[in-house]
Amino acid sequence: MSLAINQFEHRIVHTLLMGFVLVLILLVISGCSSGNDNGILVNFKSGISEIQITDDSQFPSQVSNTDLFIARVVVQNRAAYELSNVKVGLVGLDADKITLENTEQELDNLEGRSLTYPEGDRREVVFSGQVATLKLASDDGRKDAYQVYVNYDSVVEVSEDMCLSGASMILADGGCIPTDTPRGLSGQGAPLAITNIYSQAIGTNGQIRFTLENRGRGDAVYANLNDATLGGKPIVCQFLAPYPARFEFQSKKSVDVSCSFELQEGSKSYLSPFYVNMRYGYRLWQEELVTIRKVGVGVAPIDERFLN
Predict the structure, then answer these.
(1) What is the reported pTM?
(2) Which of 85, 154, 234, 273 is in the most buried spot, having the most CB atoms within 10 Å?
(3) pLDDT > 50? residue 100
(4) What is the band of 11 on the pLDDT scale with cuts at 50, 70, 90?
(5) Which residues have a Cβ under 8 Å from the Cβ of 129 and sit 6 or more positions away?
(6) Average pLDDT for the chain
(7) What is the rounded CA–CA span in Å between residue 249 and residue 231?
(8) Measured between alpha carbons, how far is 88 from 106 in angstroms, rounded to an integer?
């Protein structure tokens, strides 16, 4: 009887210990990601995410010389990284018709999405200005286009396990299976994405190549290579472009990058963690329209909240 009781007690203690270990594992996993309303874990550093000019921004559709021009711009950082040097501005308005008090405002750094901040940082700026009396009758009712923009700097990074081999041929040797076929990546939680990554080797000379691609809704300005490691050791990376350390996108959408390292010739294939971090500049913009009318011709009322 005492033996049966001891076995029963042992099973209870074992079950409690296993439950405790399971809870610890779940806590560690939840610390690396965040859950949505359905309890599904979210990896913020995946896919394409960027700052947004939100739908609750307000831009006047009509103004007259009896009005103030007032635009309310709300931005929210949906990327997984902090944004710095953030500048919000309006450009393209005819200065003879609308004179703004300022055309650009600088914001403090915007925190990216994370476990502790799943929605990302959100800020609001207001632009106001005087509307001039129209000089030409032909200008009455004409739609004028202008741009609302957000300029900023940020970073993007990737960490991938790469299969490396010092063999002269791609073959299975009991380790991992090397391949020089590019592996497609979906993005790292930024508008710039590191895609099409692969490794190759000739003797002891190894290379990891990938593409840095603009998949966001705006224009990439530049990219700098900050640092890169393979197996925890620094390696040299460069843009396959005229200037290997810095790339100016201009009208281009992507650029290839090559990272060099040394292999032990004839070594068995093995997995090694590859990490690269890049800083970039970006410009998000959208076009808005405003109609300038003569006094008393169907002008929308001003939102008095902006006048306080």
Answers:
(1) 0.80
(2) 154
(3) yes
(4) low
(5) 68, 69, 93, 98, 99, 100, 101
(6) 83
(7) 30
(8) 6
Site of tokens 């009455």 = 140
Query: Burial code of 8-21, b = ≥16 C-beta within 10 A, e = fewer?
Result: eeeeeeeeeeeeee
- In the DSSP assignment, the letter for residue 110 is B
How far is Cα 233 from Cα 238, in angstroms, rounded to an integer? 16
The Cα 139–Cα 279 span in angstroms is 45
Joined tokens for residue 265: 């010739």
Helix (H, G, I), strand (E, B) or coil at 20: helix
Query: Best-predicted range by mean pLDDT among 8-22, 136-150, 189-203, 209-223?
Result: 209-223
Per the DSSP assignment, residues forming a β-bridge with 141 are none
Q: Amino acid identity, residue 27?
A: L
State how beta strands 236-239 and 270-292 pair.
Answer: unpaired
* Dist CA 100 CA 105 (whole Å): 12
DSSP conformation class of 105: E
d(C-alpha 214, C-alpha 221), whole Å: 10
Measured distance CA(167)–CA(165) in Å, rounded: 5
For 298, the 3-state DSSP assignment is coil
**Strand ranges for 47-142 from DSSP E:** 51-53, 62-63, 68-77, 84-91, 98-100, 104-107, 122-131
225 close to 239: Cβ distance less than 8 angstroms: yes
66: which 2 tokens? 């009896």
Residue 174 confidence (pLDDT) above 80 = no
CA angle 187, 111, 247 (to 5 degrees): 50
Lowest mean pLDDT among 34-38, 79-83, 174-178, 183-187: 34-38
Q: How many CB atoms lie within 10 A of CB 107?
A: 18
